[in-house]
């Protein structure tokens, strides 16, 4: 399994600023990739959040396995957290759904303020998540306009910005932040496969082979049918992809490097079907993480 670490300087700066700004927010709206709901949570959030309520939003559900997404929503909705699974690109009402759920999560606190004769101000929420999970798109949906630049690559947002999203909700947008070291190699591998790590530092062949292994384990025969490969190992699958897509070097040898890049592109854009690469029942998890 490929070992990956990526923690550029702007992420450490953002982490410090987020920790300081958390003192002024009521809750967190945490965006995760529905295809990897466990790998796409930043473990530093537990320490940074200081016990504040969290609304977890699973994005990219149009590319995730709907059966597994339902299981993850049920699992992540336990305890004090709430969870929504949303298609940020196609659901025109997703912004209103997030606002409604965020206010609902803070309703008890707001009612206590009213009981003491205090007029509740707008809920202050910090929007956070790892790179390239669609956070800028989510902010634009909540805000009702394209106020932030969104791109299909990590590291677009680099500063913290307050937005008045609704009369009852103010949002603090933050950069996508990873953590200094992936204790679990699989986490780094999954993040790389789905585009949350800078492609320039990756060995695409190794990342693709890891992803092929996961898919072969969770969705037997899927890749074999797509690429007409027969039963092969991940390296053999890359050769089958090169053959299927007619990817050849100048000497007419199969170009497995280009095959790996093409495979990752097709995986990231949902061309292989709706896949979820983590299971709720894979191993015991801590809900607070």
List keywords for this structure.
2 domains, elongated, alpha/beta, Rossmann fold, 289 residues, single chain
Ordered list of secondary-structure elements with their pairings:
Blueprint: H1 9-21, E1 27-33, H2 44-49, E2 54-59, H3 66-76, E3 82-85, H4 94-105, H5 107-115, E4 123-129, H6 135-143, E5 161-166, E6 169-173, H7 185-193, H8 204-218, H9 222-227, H10 234-244, H11 256-268
Parallel strand pairs: 1-2, 1-4, 2-3, 4-6
Antiparallel strand pairs: 5-6
Helix pairs in contact: 4-6, 7-8, 8-10, 8-11, 10-11
Keywords: Cytoplasm, GTP-binding, Nucleotide-binding
Pfam families: MMR_HSR1
GO biological process, one term: translation
Relative strand content: 5-15%
What is the number of independent domains? 2
Give the CATH architecture of the largest domain. Answer: 3-Layer(aba) Sandwich
Number of helices: 11
Kindly state the mean pLDDT as a whole number? 86
Instruction: Quickly give the structural class.
Output: alpha/beta
Quote the distance from N terminus to C terminus.
24 Å
Query: Compute the gyration radius: what is it?
Result: 20 Å
Query: What order do the SSEs take from the amino end to the carboxyl end, as H and E?
Result: HEHEHEHHEHEEHHHHH
CATH homologous superfamily of the largest domain, by name? Answer: P-loop containing nucleotide triphosphate hydrolases
Q: Looking at the structure, what is the overall shape?
A: elongated
Query: CATH class of the largest domain, anyone?
Result: Alpha Beta
Quick one: how many beta strands? 6
Largest sheet: 6 strands, mixed
């Amino acid at each position: 399994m490929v070992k990956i670490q990526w923690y550029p300087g702007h992420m450490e700066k953002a982490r410090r600023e987020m920790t300081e700004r958390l003192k002024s927010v009521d809750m967190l709206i945490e965006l995760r990739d529905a295809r990897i709901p466990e790998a796409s949570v930043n473990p530093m959030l537990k320490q940074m959040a200081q016990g504040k309520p969290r609304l977890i939003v699973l994005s990219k559900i149009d590319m995730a396995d709907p059966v597994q997404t339902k299981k993850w929503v049920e699992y992540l909705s336990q305890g004090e957290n709430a969870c929504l699974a949303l298609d940020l690109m196609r659901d025109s009402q997703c912004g209103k759904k997030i606002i409604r759920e965020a206010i609902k999560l803070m309703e008890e606190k707001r009612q206590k303020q009213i009981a003491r004769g205090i007029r509740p101000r707008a809920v202050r929420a910090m929007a956070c998540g790892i790179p390239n999970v669609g956070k800028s798109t989510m902010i634009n949906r909540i805000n009702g306009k394209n106020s932030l630049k969104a791109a299909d690559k990590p590291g677009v947002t680099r500063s913290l910005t307050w937005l008045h999203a609704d009369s009852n909700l103010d949002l603090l947008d933050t950069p996508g932040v990873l953590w200094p070291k992936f204790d679990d190699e699989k986490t780094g591998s999954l993040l790389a496969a789905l585009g949350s790590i800078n492609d320039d530092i990756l060995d695409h062949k190794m990342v693709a082979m890891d992803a092929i292994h996961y898919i072969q384990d969770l969705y037997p025969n899927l890749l074999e049918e797509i690429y007409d490969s027969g039963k092969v190992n991940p390296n053999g699958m890359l050769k089958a992809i090169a053959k299927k897509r007619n990817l050849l070097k100048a000497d007419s040898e199969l170009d497995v490097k280009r095959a790996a890049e093409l495979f990752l592109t097709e995986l990231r854009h949902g061309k292989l079907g709706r896949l979820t690469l983590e299971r709720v029942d894979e191993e015991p998890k801590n809900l607070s993480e």
